[in-house]
Design brief:
The structure is a single chain. By secondary structure, the chain is mostly beta strands. Helices cover 9% and strands 70% of the residues. It contains two helices and ten strands. Strands 1-2-3-4-5-6-7-10 form an eight-stranded antiparallel barrel. Strand 5 and strand 6 form a beta hairpin. The longest helix is centred in the N-terminal third of the chain and has 13 residues. Keywords: Signal. This is Outer membrane beta-barrel protein. Pfam families: OMP_b-brl.
Length: 210
């Protein structure tokens, strides 16, 4: 009887992670990332610092396959300065994006899963000059597509911790400069590939079994 009890308990523990990614379940979560980069050239230097938060909600359309809606809020400050000069330019940027995503969970162990996430959506940003009474310097809007690998660890039957490890992506946007008359517009396309440690983000998800 005791052997049967412990066998049943181990079976429940072992299927916990599987139950979290079962068809019909719901997941709620988000991630936080901090960004810092600098670029020193012969006559100038630049620096960017900021952070982003990314809330999301998903539904498992089949076992191990999650379809959801992802959003991102990004805040960062950019400074540009000439070498041997006390003056420079400073900009504050706020941007947001929203769009659907699809995540595949691949089991490594009972609690650890490899994930592959792909998505696309709309993004918008506004850049201001804090030294000039928050005057609007530029604005931009466009579309993006991206994919990222990651890991998810199921700590409990309802709680999972995830790490996103870099990304590959494409974006196209139209940027308007408001400090010129008439206003100038430029269209830009960008293909990005970044798997450095600085691109990693940590997230937490809550799973609702149905």
């Amino acid at each position: 009887m005791k052997k049967l009890f412990f066998a049943g308990l181990l079976a429940l523990i072992g299927t916990g992670a599987v139950a979290q990614t079962s068809q019909g379940n719901i997941s709620l979560g988000g991630s936080l990332s901090i960004y810092s980069a600098s670029n020193d050239q012969t006559n100038s230097e630049s620096k960017q610092t900021g952070f982003s938060i990314s809330p999301s909600a998903g539904y498992f359309i089949k076992d191990g396959l999650e379809l959801g809606l992802n959003s991102r809020l990004l805040f960062y400050t950019s400074t540009y300065k000439q070498i041997n000069s006390d003056s420079g330019n400073k900009f504050n940027t706020f941007s947001y994006s929203i769009g659907p995503y699809l995540t595949k969970y691949i089991s490594i162990t009972e609690k650890l899963h490899l994930t592959a996430t792909g998505g696309f959506g709309y993004e918008n940003s506004r850049t201001k000059r804090p030294d000039e009474a928050e005057e609007l310097y530029s604005s931009a809007s466009g579309f993006y597509a991206s994919a990222a690998p990651g890991l998810t660890y199921f700590a409990t039957s309802k709680l999972g911790f995830s790490v996103s490890m870099g990304y590959i992506g494409y974006s196209k946007s139209t940027q308007t400069y408001h400090d010129s008359e008439p206003k100038q517009e430029t269209v830009s396309e960008d293909f990005g590939l970044n798997f450095s440690p600085a691109s990693a983000s940590i997230g937490i998800r809550y799973y609702i079994n149905r």
